[in-house]
Structure formats: structure tokens, C-alpha cells
Amino acid sequence: MNVKIIEETSPLDDEVPLQLVGYNKISENVKSNLFRLKKTEFSTISPQTKNFIQKHFPNTPEEQWNSWRWQIKNSFTTFEQLSEVVDVKQLMNEAFIAAHKKLPLRITPYYASLLEGADINNPIFKGVVPSIKELQMSPGEASDPLHEEKCSPVPNIVHRYPDRVLFLATGFCSTYCRYCTRSHMVSKEKVHYGKAAWQEGIEYVRNNKNVRDVLISGGDPLTMPEAHLEYLLESLRNISHVEIIRIGTKVPVVLPQRITNSFVNMLRRYHPLFMSIHFMHPMELTPEVEEACSKLANAGIPLGSQTVLLKGINDSVTVMTKLMQGLLKNRVRPYYIYQCDPIPGSGHFRTSVEKGLEIIKGLRGFTSGYAVPHFVIDAPGGGGKIPLLPEYYIGRDENNVILLNYEGKKYYYPDAPVNYK
Fold first, then answer.
1. Of 359, 339, 166, 173, whose CA–CA distance to 253 is shortest?
2. How many other CB atoms are there within 10 angstroms of residue 296's CB atom?
3. DSSP string, 315-367
4. Which positions are annotated as active-site residues?
5. What is the CA radius of gyration of the chain?
6. Measured between alpha carbons, how far is 410 from 215 in angstroms, rounded to an integer?
7. What is the mean pLDDT of residues 387-395?
8. I want to staple 40 with a disulfide (CB 3.0 to 4.6 A). Which of 66, 124, 183, 372 is the partner?
9. Which residues 6+ apart lie within 8 Å of 4 measured at CB?
10. From CA 46, how far away is CA 287, in angstroms rounded?
């Protein structure tokens, strides 16, 4: 990916340093409580999470646990750490995986609480714990299958569609998904790119009058210091032809503590602002996530979901129905189900395309229309998102259009004759 990285340190004492790297073991600050925090603005701790804290972080006060900075600083980044929560011996050759993994291991303590006692068949486990299968290449896989590099006119910008651009603001995520489309460019050693690295991208948007929509992504932009994200939002909002700004993130799911009152109050200053949140499985719909989504929705930010179709994780009508209905209850509109991109080592995640069509067919008509997302393939080679639908249009019979409903029954619609005036 065409990115520019300029390391910076946050000028604010209460922000996470931009050079942040994972600890080799759980920080001693967890045990000594020497890590000082300002009063947190996030309050929810579910019973499941409380049990996890008592077992693995017994000396950690709730205020500390609910600090997003503490969560990032104390993330699980090694198999040794993770073995305190799950039996990593279930994995084949975990030492070999650790030595050869292409994408860093990083899981926030909160998200790790969903792994408590999990085995290798647990959907959350499959989504974030490295597997030796990641080292097995399949035909058609590529490090940049969407050709984002070729669509990048200046560092950190991807311009594929006429009226919108993707702005890659950071290479860091608080939790790394094993099927990440941008595994080729997310943080290996570096972390946030910094304000200076964004200037060419901001100028590119300013100089291209056709750009009316900017999607800020990465990495995960909600892991950046608040002052830095606001700088980028303000810079883009001050460009007259930019009509809407979107943020792509998984932070409300893996680090809901980030969604504080002050952070949300900052975001609402830059409306119209939209947010696409990456959800994987209904197990992620916890009381903590409910609080995060509620704060964002109450701030007037329209929320949409993006879900990657993953084999053995969410590839059934039952699981997807539960997820999509649960999202609506949290005021998140299901937006996309993505066919998994063919990145290196993704064969064990990818389903057939027919499976995605089967799921859409199992949703359409059987649940609320708002709960039915678009099923798309982001075409390899830079073709963009291509929607796919089951065959509801069968053809024509004289002046009628033949339709198939969700139950598989045929219906006839009297189409206007071609020569009608």
C-alpha cells in the first residue's frame, strides 16, 4: 500500500503514544495499579467481563479497566500471554506460528474476555488467534488483491470511484483480524502515520472537486489520539466540496471503552458523519458494545455494519439472522456482507459464493428488510464492489414479468408493453 509514515508522539499526556508497541508480557502496571488515569466516561462491565477481570486482572479497578488507553497498553500480543485465557496447545505448532506469523497478534483484554475457556472451534477464537493455515497459499491469492496500490495517486489515498476516496489514516488496530484485507500494510513495527503524513492526502482531496465523500479507514482510525482524529476531520470538513465523511472501524466491537462522552461530543461537531462498524458474529453483541453503539447513535451518527462471510464462523442463515437482527436492536443498519478477499493464507476462511447467496435468500422475506444487507464481492484487480442477488427475476411471459418470491413461488407482474404511449 502506498503509505507515508512519519512517527510522532502525541502532545497530550493522556493519549496513547504513537510509537506504542505490544508488551512482551502483561504489564506490571496491571498488578501494581501505578498507571494513572483520568476519570473514565465508559461505565458498562458485563457479568461475564467481571468474572474475567477477577480471574485474570484481580487488582485492576473498574475505572482502569474501562480506560481505552489501558486496554491498548495491556493487550495480549504473544501466545504466552494468551495461554492464560485459552489453551493455545490446541493449535498445531504454536511456536512455529509465532515465529512465522505475517500479521501481528493483538487482542484487547476486553475482547479476550469473550475467549474465556474457548476452544479452536469458537468463532471469536478463529477470527483473531493465528493459525498455521494462514501459511498455506491457495490459487488466486495475492497480498493486495484489490489493487489498492495501483489506485493510490498519493500516499494514504485510494481513489477507485469517481466521487469518493479512501483515506488510510493509520496502520494500527487494537485487535487484528486474521482475515484482514490490508494485512499487507497494517502495523508490523510502525504505528500511527501522523499528521504530517496526511498532508498530501488532504491536498489531493482539496484539489479534486469531484470528491464529495471521504472514507477514513486504516488500520483503525478510532485508535488514534482524539486530537489527531479531530485534526483530520476538521481538515476534511473545511473542504467545501466534501459533503460527507465516513469512518470505518471495529473499535466499538473490540474496544468499546474508546467511545467516551467527550470523544462522541468531538465527533458530532463534524456532521454529516457516518460510521461503518465491522461485526463478525452475534457473540460480539455484548452490553459493552450496546453502550458504545448507543452513544454513537444518540450523537446522530448513522451506523452501518460490514461483515465478512467466514467459513465456520458466520456462514449460516441462523448465525447471520441472529447477527443482523441484533445489530438492528443496537441501531446499526446491516450494510454489507463481503465475500472474503483472497489475501495470502485465507483459503480456510473463504466460502463458496453460493453460500453468500444462500444466506441472502435465507434473510430476504424471512426477516425485516432493514436486516438484509447487500452481499458483495470486492472484485480482485480493482473492479470495486459488485453486488450479487439470488435469482428473483425469472424472465418474461408475453407482457408479464415472471418473479420468484422468498418462498420459491412464481408470480406474474403485468409489465407495460414496449410500444405503450
1. 173
2. 25
3. -SHHHHHHHHHHHHHTT-EEEEEEEPP--TT-TTT---HHHHHHHHHHHBTTB
4. 160-161, 164, 173, 177, 180, 182, 341, 378, 385
5. 22
6. 41
7. 90
8. 66
9. 155, 156, 193, 197, 200
10. 6
Burial class (CB in 10 A: 0-12, 13-18, 19+), 13: exposed
Which helix (H) or strand (E) segment holds residue 232: the answer is helix 226-237
Give Cβ neighbours of residue 326 (< 8 Å, ≥ 6 apart).
282, 285
The span from the CA of 105 to the CA of 128, in Å, is: 8
Task: Kindly state the helix (H) or strand (E) to which residue 254 belongs, with its residue range.
Answer: helix 251-254
Bin 252: left if φ > 0, else alpha if -120 < ψ < 50, else beta. alpha
Q: Count H helices, E strands: the chain?
A: 15, 12
Transcribe 1-23 into DSSP letters: ----------SSTTSPPTT----
pLDDT at 93: 64
DSSP codes, 76-127: B-SHHHHTTTS-GGGSTTHHHHHHH-SS---B-HHHHGGGTT--TT-HHHHH
Q: Which H or E run includes 275? A: strand 273-278
Least confident of 9-13, 243-247, 376-380: 9-13
Say which residues have a Cβ less than 8 Å from residue 420's Cβ, sequence separation at least 6: none
Contact status, residue 270 vs residue 233, Cβ threshold 8 Å = yes
CB atoms within 10 A of CB 93: 11
Pair 27, 15: CB distance under 8 Å: no
196-201's contacts with Cβ under 8 Å and 24+ in sequence apart are: 196/6, 196/8, 197/3, 197/4, 197/5, 197/6, 197/155, 197/156, 198/156, 198/167, 198/169, 198/232, 198/235, 200/4, 200/154, 200/155, 200/156, 200/157, 201/154, 201/155, 201/156, 201/157, 201/167
417: DSSP letter = P
Let me know: does 392 contact 409? Beta carbons within 8 Å. Answer: no
- pLDDT digits 0-9 by tens, 332-380: 999 999 998 888 888 889 999 999 999 999 999 999 999 999 999 988 8
Residue 9: predicted pLDDT:
38
Q: Are strands 374-379 and 273-278 parallel, antiparallel or unpaired?
A: unpaired
Pick the range with the lowest mean pLDDT from 106-115, 158-167, 411-420.
411-420
Q: How do residues 120-161 score in pLDDT, each as one tens digit?
A: 899 999 999 988 888 888 888 777 777 787 889 999 999 999
Average pLDDT over residues 281-301: 98
Task: Check pLDDT > 60 for residue 35.
Answer: no
